[in-house]
Amino acid sequence: MKPLKVAMLGCGVVGTEVATRILGNAADLEARIGAPLEISAVAVRDAGKDRPGIPSELLTTDTAAAIEGADIVVELMGGHEPARELILTALRSGASVVTANKALLASDYSELLAAAEDAEVRLEHEAAVAGAIPIIRPVVNSLAGDRITRVLGIVNGTTNYILDQMEKEGWDFDHALATAQELGYAEADPTADIGGHDAAAKAAILASLAFHTRVSIDDVHVEGITGVTADMVETASAQGFTIKLLAICETIEDSPAGPGVSARVYPALLPKDHALASVGGAFNAVFVEAEAAGSLMFYGQGAGGAPTASAVLGDIVSTARRKVLGGTGQARRSIGNRLPVLPISAIRTRYQITFDVFDRPGVLAQISQVFAEEGTSIELMQQTQLEPTDDDAPQRAKLVIATHSGTDAALAKTVERAVALDAVNELKSVLRIEGH
Amino acid sequence: MKPLKVAMLGCGVVGTEVATRILGNAADLEARIGAPLEISAVAVRDAGKDRPGIPSELLTTDTAAAIEGADIVVELMGGHEPARELILTALRSGASVVTANKALLASDYSELLAAAEDAEVRLEHEAAVAGAIPIIRPVVNSLAGDRITRVLGIVNGTTNYILDQMEKEGWDFDHALATAQELGYAEADPTADIGGHDAAAKAAILASLAFHTRVSIDDVHVEGITGVTADMVETASAQGFTIKLLAICETIEDSPAGPGVSARVYPALLPKDHALASVGGAFNAVFVEAEAAGSLMFYGQGAGGAPTASAVLGDIVSTARRKVLGGTGQARRSIGNRLPVLPISAIRTRYQITFDVFDRPGVLAQISQVFAEEGTSIELMQQTQLEPTDDDAPQRAKLVIATHSGTDAALAKTVERAVALDAVNELKSVLRIEGH
């Protein structure tokens, strides 16, 4: 059988790993595919730079020439343009595309998928969410006959490492971040990770696939972990919770805004006995709830050259197998506008609120009164005296309140009113409780 | 687009769930597939029996007529014959087949797969291993470009429930089994589960797919859990281990018998901090190690009507989507005779051996001497005095020895020689230590 031509766009850590594995495992891959894989070109910015393991004659700076005649185009450049244009060109030329570009998919997924369907070719992107963990294929295929109701994911290793170290070592955020940077778990500019934007891109892709509904990154409510303090981690732990940056995708039948889907990212309190709570270090895990399947969890390495390359290679091999069999088209993913995307205010959650209050008679009554008036039911209230800062200062206490479930809007309004009370010196933190 | 005809063979708990979901979610499924799914027949043993939710005109006892003209045949009868013949008939007639029949696949996988490839149709069986957990698709597709080195699975919920209860409640085996039977987790005849045969069937399928090598159930070394005592569970726990019935599939480069694959099932000691150790109750989990991907874990419900139906439906939908796109053929699974299957004697493992010894000077020296002569390195030795049964009886002790890694043959020989020593009153147990 004649070789299948693979053109690679971009050749950083992941690209080099992919290319050297294709070149080094040629016989195995041919046996698995039914035809040999041949790297026809590797498009890079600087073709003069030596890349160990990759024959220099494959290197080119001409992306258009690289795409031409390719059966499979592997896009590992990242970023929005020119990646988007190149992928569209490749799809229209009849090549299937494998990409790990989560940022692009999170904004332009429907357009790219439509282009693939029109051209009857495939667009695969297992590596774009949770690295080596096979999560796209289970959601798209294995659960295709089921109804997914919720996806809870730890999909950013950097923030998980930081939060994990804060809990285990008692470090503050800055120290944990600096250590993550030293160890290479966090980039020099960590904004995309710690701001939650990387997780939000993945949430958009997961929600689109799980709920057959167009969800772009702009639809995802995002809060990062920069506001998480050592004190918050300690309070959480004392109450049996661990703080995790969660990507949450849910279908909601009965929100005040009607039925819809929610996609959101924020640091949340997770009960320590939840399956996701023990996911430590830079690992990723995705917890899926489906009507018939029940709870499923997928766990593994969410980043890194080799794990990401494994996911890219899996996509290349399954696309190549399909080419060999003849049916090259994109399996239907039916992403439409099945349900509206709900605003954060309409979703139901639980709050853990920490106040710094003046420790005098009637304070709890006053605060409880506000909660009652707003219809926010209290599950737990815990008050601890604070050490006085000086003798003349009024005695203060730390008051932690965990609510029962309510809409985010109602809970936020309750907090806003409580903060305005004389009895409250300061609002220390608000965290949502998830995973029940 | 014209409807795709689905014929069902067998309609027990899983079949009923599959049929009612196809009938009840018709519009959703059509949107996901691109064509309507139509149940053309449901072949059952007794067509007169009323089956709520399934129109009686679909029921038939004529399996041949049910298969004829079907696009997809769903085999949920179980057992060897007539399931095997019917699947072969269906494949040869040009229908794709979805099955959950692990016993059949474990013995006749290569033949069935070859028939599917010859007929250019698909044979899908996600439900045959670990129920709702998508494990087949990740192994076959997601990791298709990687090299899987090891699969460790808890793939039988009944035995996991029993061992879990023995550890948590301190129950003995018989009481835990009886409770499992009362709760419906274990069958009236529990042999296939507690004897390890059900897990062995799954190990054969997983090893075949993971290592592209024909492994049948007869190649799998099987030990069940009937010999596990409350005392063994307690000893394990005290040393930081939990006992799990593991299905282990490995590639081994350097066994005494040369390179090969191993597929085996036995109760093993797993360190309590291993990801599989916390898989409790009737849940299943599969831990996969691959060269590039690193460690991955898949967790969920391994049995039950709805979870199994979810996996069957996923297979039906992805097969149907493929039909709509035209390329109906079976993606290449390339199961050949790439590597020999190694006997248990050639695989490397670690032993935890518990002896009942006479407590007198020189006993440890004598036993250590045997281990040294056999080249079996001791990692840990722990001796505890036993309460004397009567005043005249010689003082005895419980001696627990954990070895470093060695071939199973060498470890077994060491135990055999040690047992023959005068100092040893009785061999209490031998368990392998896995997960390092």
From TrEMBL, chains A, B:
Keyword Amino-acid biosynthesis in annotation: yes
Enzyme class: oxidoreductase
Binding site for NADP(+): L9, G10, C11, G12, V13, V14, G15, T16
Binding site for NADPH: K102
Active site (catalytic residues): K202
Domain ACT: 352-435
Cofactor(s) required for function per UniProt: a metal cation
GO molecular function, one term: NADP binding
Keyword check for Manganese: no
Catalytic activity: L-homoserine + NADP(+) = L-aspartate 4-semialdehyde + NADPH + H(+); L-homoserine + NAD(+) = L-aspartate 4-semialdehyde + NADH + H(+)
SUPFAM superfamilies: ACT-like, Glyceraldehyde-3-phosphate dehydrogenase-like, C-terminal domain, NAD(P)-binding Rossmann-fold domains
Keywords: Amino-acid biosynthesis, Methionine biosynthesis, NADP, Oxidoreductase, Sodium, Threonine biosynthesis
A GO BP annotation: threonine biosynthetic process
EC number per UniProt: 1.1.1.3
Domain of life assignment: Bacteria
Sequence positions that bind L-homoserine: E187
InterPro entries tied to this protein: ACT-like_dom_sf, ACT_dom, Asp/hSer_DH_NAD-bd, HDH, HDH_cat, HDH_CS, NAD(P)-bd_dom_sf
CDD domains from the UniProt entry: ACT_HSDH-Hom (cd04881)
Pathway annotation from the record: Amino-acid biosynthesis; L-methionine biosynthesis via de novo pathway; L-homoserine from L-aspartate: step 3/3; Amino-acid biosynthesis; L-threonine biosynthesis; L-threonine from L-aspartate: step 3/5
Pfam families, per the entry: ACT, Homoserine_dh, NAD_binding_3
PANTHER family: HOMOSERINE DEHYDROGENASE
Described purpose of this protein according to its UniProt entry: Catalyzes the conversion of L-aspartate-beta-semialdehyde (L-Asa) to L-homoserine (L-Hse), the third step in the biosynthesis of threonine and methionine from aspartate.
Family: Belongs to the homoserine dehydrogenase family.
Name the record gives this protein: Homoserine dehydrogenase
Species assigned in the record: Brevibacterium luteolum
